[in-house]
Amino acid sequence: MAVATTEKSSKTMSLQTWGLLFLLALIWGGAFFFGQVAVRELPPFSVALGRVGIAAIALLIFVYASGRRMPASLRIWSAFAVMGLINNVIPFSLIFFGQTQITSGLASILNATTPIFTVLLAHFLTTDEKLSIGRLIGVGCGLVGVALMIGTDVLAGAADNIIGQAAVLAGACSYALAGIFGRRLRSVPAPVAASGQLVSSTIILVPIVLIVDQPWTLPMPSLEVIGAVVGIAVICTSLAYIIYFHILAVAGATNVLLVTLLIPVSAILLGTVFLSEVLLPVHLLGMAIIGIGLLTIDGRVFRALRIRLFPLPREKA
Question: How far apart are CA 214 and CA 83, in angstroms?
Answer without folding.
Answer: 26
